[in-house]
Amino acid sequence: MKVLVHLCCGPCAIAPVQALHDAGMDVVGLYYNPNIHPLQEYLRRREGVTDVAHRLGFPVIYKDDEYDPALFFRAVSFRETQRCVPCYSLRLERTLSIARRGQFDAFTTTLLYSKFQKHEMIREVGENLAQGSGLSFVYQDFREGWSAGIAQSKAWGVYRQQYCGCLYSEGERYARDLRKLYA
Fold this sequence. Notes:
This protein has a single domain (2-181), classed as Rossmann fold, CATH 3.40.50.620. α5 (119-130) links the parallel β4 and β5. The longest helix is centred in the N-terminal third of the chain and has 18 residues, at 39-56. It has 7 helices and 5 strands. It has helices at 11-22, 39-56, 69-76, 84-101, 119-130, 146-156, 167-181; strands spanning 2-6, 26-31, 60-62, 106-109, 136-137.
């Protein structure tokens, strides 16, 4: 089975790609993340993807020409507190589109690796998109490889981020630090 895997970052790719390889799947990655903010963060994560792909031996499609945070902001405007569904949809819709054109059998995402992502939402978005597309959405709970993936990314020195990537999650993550300063 040929599967296109949406990649959010290098560390989150390790366990899912290994699991898919172990299941006999032919893996190609897709780095498409208009949600990541700022550009320097996007580039650091891209570098991590490149490093992990090289180490694990799988090709990656980079959609740098489509890096457009305004697209993400338009998708989540006025629903910032429920921003994850439009964010997942944006990235998985693009993954499905490329998978169709590339004659893949299936698509999935490394977002399913993170303990901090909303798995049921991701699954629902992926399965809904797959309906009638001729492709399957591969749902697998990659969190089982959480500890091993973290250990491997640290051993390889791959950049590990502290927030999901969007401006809102960055604000939430670092607001805690700011509150500590004034406590």
